[in-house]
Every structure is written in C-alpha cells, then in structure tokens.
Design a protein that fits this description.
Rossmann fold, about 325 residues, about 40% helix, globular, single chain, eight-stranded mixed sheet
Length: about 325
C-alpha cells in the first residue's frame, strides 16, 4: 500500500483517536507494517496505545522542531498490536507555537521528517488534533489522503464542510495529490432517525467514498484506552473490534481493486460476513437528504425533514459488547 493517511476532523469527539488506534492494530493484524503518528498535544493516541506520555524522552515535538530524527523517537507497541508509534504529549503545543514563528517551510516539517522512513511502512496513520491548526496542516501536507470520522449529527456536518475547505486549500497550495480516503460513520445508532438522515446526506454527497463499514456505539471501544490497548486486544470478539477489522478489510479491498491486484484479505477476523454484520443499510435518498457537488466541495447542510423511516439494521439491538 505504502500510503500516508491523515485521520482528521475539525469537530472533537467524533472518534478520531479511537479510529487511529484501532485501525492501526487491525491493519497490523493483516501483517501490514503500520506507523501511527500522534499529532495531538492531548496525547490520547499515545496513552491508548499503552505508552505513558509523561515519561517520553523524545516525541513528535522534537521531530517537528528538528531536534531529533524520526527513527530515534519511534516506540514499538507491545501486547501483540504489532505497529510502531510516534508518541506525543503536551510539549507539542510549544512546537506549534515555534512553528508559527518560522518564516518559511513550517507546513512541511512533518513531511520532511517522515521522508526517510516512509518506505519502511505499508501504511502511515496520522491522528490529527480536533482543530484546523498548524499541526493539522502539517499532517495534511504529509498525507496522501484524508480519512474523515463522522458522527451522524448536525454539528459534525458543519465541521466536515470546514475540513473540506481546508483540504482544497492544501491541495491548491502545497499537496495537489491529496484526496479523500473516505468518510467513516462512527458511534452510529440506526434506531436514531437523525443519524439515518445525516447518513443519507453523506451517501448522496460522497457516494462510494462513504465506507460501507460503520462503527457502532460500543462499551468495549470506550473501555480499551483505560487498559492502554486497542479494543482488538481488550476484547477481540466485541462489536467495536470486529467493526475496525471490517474497516481494515474494506480499505485493503479498495486498494487492491484500484491497483488490480487480488489477495485474500478475508483470512483475518474481518471477513465479508463480519463486514455485513457491521455495515449500515444504504439509506434511501430522500428529498431532504439530497446534496449535490463533488467530494471536494462543501457539504450542503439542509434542514432536516420529517423523520426517515429506517429498516432496523443488524446491530440495532444494543449489547454491552
């Protein structure tokens, strides 16, 4: 694959960090070499991967400021996850302030630091902060594509419009190859009429850029960070863990279809049956859910009409797992 994917969304609380950690573990479970980069000063990706952010000697901060090489700051993740982490902590805030004082090249620091190690990994995932700041800009400049976690609520639609505008600006200025990897519906509850209606808007606007896989609300996904491990190694049979395995399988299939290669990716736990179990039904395109334009334009946030009648999905009955 050999791609760099930024996981970005302006709105907080939509599942960026959960997606970054669990997708990295799921892709590593398919024997891919994965590097996970924490670009958020909160350091939640670092803690969720089992690394104490308070004990870091080197982090993303030092790498961005050129005080150490990226290879010197990498941390291999234990407990069988099989991916490598570039950790971060609150020092990253100071790095952002210093970057803003640079007269030139401040938006390309991550791309330059990543260049020597990029080909050592099949996939590089970058967890962005919940803001369109210089750290997010660095991630977008370094990335080949953007994966957008999206909670199916009104405010998230507004955040999506702002992010797409930023992506267009980055594409026009410094990274013309930047594309939308896909839109991932997170914390999805098909019993919620609003969630189904927003989902219909996303499908109408983005088409097949919306992943078939949806991430359900799941207690195991919420618990796993407190144990310092991905959900796959906290409870591999939980609906949340299976959903991220299915997402990894879907991403690999998309890549292979686009490159014309054929490989058996269903040998892992995320088989087609698993994928079908965690995908939402394609919502009917109603007049209130129509949105025109391409994936690069702003999403039309239309007023919500009468509740859309949705057929209950397989995951409609909420379980503790």
């Amino acid at each position: 694959m050999k791609r760099v994917i930024a996981i970005a969304m302006q709105k907080g609380g939509v599942g960026k960090t959960t997606t970054a950690v669990n997708l990295a573990a799921s892709l590593a479970a398919t024997k891919r070499r994965v590097l996970l980069i924490d670009m958020d000063p909160q350091g939640n990706t670092t803690m969720g991967s089992g690394v104490d952010k308070a004990q870091l000697e080197r982090s993303t901060c030092e790498v961005l400021l050129g005080e150490c090489q990226l290879a010197d700051a990498l941390v291999p993740i234990e407990h069988g996850a099989g991916f490598t982490l570039l950790p971060a902590n609150q020092d990253l805030t100071a790095a952002e302030v210093r970057l803003l004082t640079l007269p030139i090249g401040r938006e390309t620091k991550l791309r330059q630091a990543l260049a020597p190690k990029r080909n050592d990994y099949d996939l590089v995932l970058i967890d962005c902060p919940p803001a369109l700041n210089m750290l997010t800009v660095n991630a977008l400049v370094a990335a080949d594509s953007v994966l957008i976690p999206m909670q199916c609520e009104y405010y998230a639609l507004e955040g999506l419009s702002a992010l797409l505008s930023t992506v267009e600006q980055i594409r026009a200025a410094v990274n013309p190859q930047l594309v939308i990897e896909g839109v991932l519906r997170t914390m999805f509850d098909p019993r919620n009429n609003l969630a189904n209606e927003v989902s219909a808007q996303l499908i109408a606007h983005f088409g097949d850029k919306v992943f078939r896989t949806v991430i359900p609300r799941n207690i195991r996904l919420a618990e796993a960070p407190s144990f310092g491990k991905p959900a796959l190694f906290h409870d591999k049979e939980s609906r949340g863990a299976l959903a991220y395995l299915a997402l990894a399988g879907e991403m690999i299939r998309r890549e292979e279809e686009s490159s014309g290669t054929v490989r058996n990716v269903t040998a892992m736990a995320g088989s087609d049956a698993t994928l079908d179990a965690v995908t939402a039904p394609t919502a009917p395109t109603a007049s209130a859910a129509t949105a025109s334009g391409t994936a690069g334009s702003a999403v039309a946030v239309t007023p919500m009409a009468a509740p859309v009648s949705a057929t209950p999905a397989p995951q409609a009955e909420e379980r503790s797992r």
